[in-house]
Amino acid sequence: MSAQVAVVGGGLAGIRAALDCADAGLRVVLLERRPGLGGATWSRSHRGLHVDNGQHVAMRCCTAYLDLLERIGSRDRLALQPRLEVPVARPGLPLAWIRRSRLPAPAHLGGSLLRFAPLTVPERLSAARAAAAFLWLDPEDPSLDEQSVGAWLRSQGQSDRVIDGLWDLLLRPTLNLPAREASLALAAKVLRTGFLDRADAADIGMPRVPFDVLHGQPATRALSNAGVELRLRSRVDAIEPARDGRLHLCADGTEALDVDAVIVATPHDVAGSLLPAEAGVDALALAKLGHSPIVNLHVVFDRPVLDRPFLAALQSPVQWVFDRTGPAGLSEGQYLTLSLSAGDACLGESRERLREIFVPALGALLPAAREARLVDFFVTNEPRATFRQAPGTRRLRPGTATRLPGLFLAGAWTDTGWPDTMEGAARSGARAAAAAVAGLRTAAGGRMPEAA
Ligand SMILES: Cc1cc2nc3c(=O)[nH]c(=O)nc-3n(C[C@H](O)[C@H](O)[C@H](O)COP(=O)(O)OP(=O)(O)OC[C@H]3O[C@@H](n4cnc5c(N)ncnc54)[C@H](O)[C@@H]3O)c2cc1C
Questions:
Q1: Do residues 319 and 345 make contact, with C-beta atoms less than 8 angstroms apart?
Q2: According to the model, what pLDDT value does residue 452 have?
Q3: Is the pLDDT of residue 428 over 60?
Q4: Integer Cα distance of 224 and 390 in angstroms
Q5: Residue 1: is its pLDDT beyond 70?
Q6: Residue 253 in 3-state DSSP?
Q7: Is the minimum distance from the CB of 270 to ligand 1 under 6 angstroms?
Q8: Residue 402 contacts residue 409 (beta carbons within 8 Å)
Q9: pLDDT in tens, 217-232
Q10: Is the link from the previous residue into 106 a cis peptide, with omega within 30 of 0?
C-alpha cells in the first residue's frame, strides 16, 4: 500500500497539495476544521442572496491559481478580461482609464499613464520614471524587504499626490496595506510580475459565480475523484513525531492518526501553535507576521447604478466597487460590493456609520446611485484577511521544509516570493506536495513510497 500523507487545512493551498499528492500515487487524507473547503474564500446566504466573504480578483499572471481552477474543472467560472482595462472614478469628474495597448511590455501601459487624468502632466512623467526604475529592482534582493515602498517612491521623487493617485491604487488592493507601509520587495514583485514584465499579465479575472461554486464544491468533487479522504469539521490540535519515524496527529481532542508525512496548510498563527518543537519553526516569528483586515460593504439598490463590472475610485473613501448582481442571483436591482483593503479604520465602525459614510460617497461617484432606493446594506469583516505585508516580513516567512523529516508547510504566508494571495496559496501547495513526494521517495530508496 502507498504511503499516507495528511494535509491539514482545506484552503486553496491545502486543496492543491492534496490533489498533487494524490496524483503522485500517495494515499491522502485532508482534515479541515470547517464544514466546507475554500478557506479564506467562502460564501453564505443572506436574505436570498449568495454572498461571498469578500470580493477576490486574480490576474492573468496568476498561473498556479489558474492551473488549480483548471484541475478542479472551474476555469470557465472565472471571467478574465481579454485586455486590461480599469475605469477610475472621481467625484464629479469623467472616468479616467488604466488600459493596456497592443505595444509590448513595458510600453503597453505607457500611453495610459501619459494620459492618466488624475495626475498633472509633470506628475505623469515623474510616475513613468519611477515605473521605469521598478524595472531595475529585483524582488528577490533581500535588501528590498528592509524598506517600505513609500520611502523608496519618495526617493524617486514621487509626491504624495502621485503616491495616492497612482501607486496606492495599484498596491493597496494587491498588498492589503497602504502603499506607504508595504514592503518594497513585495511591491516590486507585484509591479514587475503583474504590470511591467509581460503585457498581458495584469488582465483582471473575476469570479462569475460565488466561491462555493468556484472553489468549494468543485474541489470537493476533484479530491473525491482523486481518491482523497476528506474529513470536514475535523480540527487538528497537535502534530507530534511518532516513535517509528512517522507523524502522529490529534484531531478534535480524541481522534488520532499516524501518517508518513504531514503538510500543514493552516493560517500562520494556527501553524505556529500546531508544529512540534522538533520542526524548528519559530512560532514567535510567525506571530510577528501579524494580520491586515479587509472589509467588504454590500450594497443593494432597487435599480442598476453601475454600468460596468467594476471600477476603482480616487478622492473618495470608496476604493474598488464590483457588480455582484449575477453571481449572487439577484433578479431585480443591483448588488454592489465595496472592497476596502487595509480596512483597519472601518473594522470598529457600526453598520449605520459605514452606511452614512459610504452610500453618499458612492452617490458622488455614480450619479444614478443618488436617485436609487437603498434596499439593503450589510458588512463582512475579515480582520485576519492577510498577513501584514510590511518591510521585514520576508525573513519571517518559512520555506516548505521543516527540520522534522516528513513535515512540510504550505499557505500563502510561506516564503513563496508572492504576496498573500490565491496565487501564493496555490504555489505553496504545489511546492509542499512536490517536497513531500520527493522526501518519501528518498526515504523509500527512490521507489514509489510505500506505507511504513
Ligand atoms: C476578504 C478577502 C479578500 C481577499 N482578496 C484577494 C484577492 O482579491 N486576490 C487574491 O489573490 N487574494 C485575496 N485574498 C487572500 C486570499 O484569500 C488568501 O491569500 C488565500 O485564500 C489563502 O489560502 P490558504 O490556503 O493559504 O489559507 P486559508 O484559505 O486561510 O486556508 C487555511 C485553512 O485551514 C483551516 N484550518 C485552520 N485551523 C485548522 C486546524 N486546526 N485543523 C484543520 N484545519 C484548520 C481553515 O479553516 C482554512 O480552511 C483575500 C482574502 C480575504 C479574506
A1: no
A2: 46
A3: yes
A4: 39
A5: no
A6: coil
A7: yes
A8: yes
A9: 999 999 999 999 999 9
A10: yes
**What would you report as the CA-atom Rg of the chain, rounded to the nearest whole angstrom?**
23
pLDDT in tens, 240-299: 999 888 999 999 888 789 999 999 999 999 999 999 999 999 999 999 999 999 999 999
Domain boundaries, the chain: 4-41+210-289+391-443, 44-79+205-209+290-386, 102-199
Residue 195 binned pLDDT confidence (cut-offs 50, 70, 90): very high
Query: What pLDDT is attached to residue 255?
Result: 79
Query: CB of 16 closer than 6 A to ligand 1?
Result: no
Cα of 446 vs centre of ligand 1, distance in Å, is 34
Question: Is the CB of 36 within 6 Å of ligand 1?
Answer: no
Query: Measured between alpha carbons, how far is 201 from 66 in angstroms, rounded to an integer?
Result: 13
Q: Closest residue (by CA) to atom 13 of ligand 1?
A: 421
Taking only the tens place, the pLDDT of each residue in 295-342 is 999 999 999 999 999 999 999 999 999 999 999 999 999 999 999 999
Burial of 207-236, coded b for 16+ CB within 10 Å and e otherwise, reads bebbbbbbbbbbbbebbeeeebebbeebbb
How distant is the alpha carbon of residue 69 from its chain centre? 14
Q: Ligand 1: which of 422, 423, 427, 428 to mutate, most ligand atoms within 8 Å of CB?
A: 422
pLDDT in tens, 34-49: 999 999 999 999 999 9
Question: In the structure grid, which three cell numbers stand for residue 17, read together?
Answer: 497539495
For the chain, give the mean pLDDT: 96
CA 365 distance to own-chain centroid? 27
- Is the CATH number 3.50.50.60 carried by domain 4-41+210-289+391-443? yes
CA-nearest residue for atom 17, ligand 1, is 40
Class of domain 102-199: mainly alpha
Q: Which of 189, 270, 415, 423 to mutate to test the pocket of ligand 1 (most atoms within 8 A of CB)?
A: 270
Is any atom of ligand 1 closer than 6 Å to the C-beta of 172? Answer: no
Q: Would the CATH topology of 4-41+210-289+391-443 be identical to that of 102-199?
A: no
**C-alpha 363 to ligand 1 mean position (Å):** 32
* Ligand 1 contacts CB of residue 340 (under 6 A): no
Take atom 27 of ligand 1 and give the residue whose Cα is closest: 11
Q: Does 235 sit in the ligand 1 pocket, CB within 6 Å?
A: yes
